[in-house]
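Quick board copy: two proteins, each given as sequence then tokens.
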Amino acid sequence: MKRYLRFVPLLVLYIIVVLSAAQNQFQGDEGRYVWFAENLAQGFYSPTDDINLWNGPGYPLILVPFVLLRIPWLYAKLLNVVFLWLAVILLYQTLQFYVPERAARLFAYVLGLYPSFLIEAHLLITESLTFLLIAAFAYYGRPWLVERWPALDKIYVVLGIAETSPVEGLVLEGVNGMRNA
């Protein structure tokens, strides 16, 4: 538990970002996720006369309790803080299988401070949940994978990290840069 206290500064930062940037009006995709959550709370996902399956139901399902209990959306936005913080901790734990503790902590902090996460933390969008799910899969899926295919152990973490938004974005920028050179 003491190891995770080292990440409390990130937790505090995320809370400050959300509380200072959250707005009462929805921005970008937020309205669509809320609309789907409101539909789910009424027993359907998309109206039958105008079917809209643009998003899957995962994130709207998380928002349904906020709709049903009429909890202010700020609390749903603060849920992103929990998602991001847990993702950083799971990433840290996964990295410890491969690198020394200090390096794992440093990389977890670097990823936890990724500007996109900070810029979007106050929005009702899927990025923080996606980051948590990828980190959870990397940590909890590793024993299963390593038991069946030990040779994949060393590349497993690389593949998992490559699928996170920041690294994927950097790789795509690098590929575009090489293509344009």
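And the next:
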Amino acid sequence: MRVHAQWHLDDRRVIDAHDLSTKSGSWGIGKGLSKMIFAQSFENVKAWSSKGFRPAIAIQLDDSFLTDLSTPDFLAMLTEQYHVPPEMLAIEIMEESIINGKDIVRDILSRLRIKGFKIDVLVEGEGENILPMIGKLPIDQIVIDMSPLSKRSNFHSDMETEFLYSSLTSVASKNLIKVCATC
């Protein structure tokens, strides 16, 4: 189950999760909004678990958390506070966050993995940017959002896309990383 926030404007328009993630950073509210989403998600998981429903949850992490050394401890504190095992949660980050990131991003991801969290990378497109980095990243799963590609007229017969996806799944598999795609 993937957790996403939406922002409902007064004129009834909705800012979707991806646009909200982008805009919240420029508005300076990304980290605060993410903390609210984490707290609400953990509260829901705790309530569901008490009723025997224990879904795996993927929550997108705002980029500001990826350069904050207190992030792993903050998330571990939330798991303790809400009695939610960290292995039930996948921390989802965008591919560009890793590509544009520094060594501190890998450090944060490594610390999260040590604390028991799963790390998912959301890739938009064909995955050619993450491919050469796979063996160097502490990640558990790559989620490829193929919706931009599925609009192409030759989507089902595009040999280049098929080759890139096959290469990505092969390299990921050798590194014990799962790959899935959404449209």
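Board note added afterward: The CA atoms of residues 26 and 156 lie 37 Å apart.
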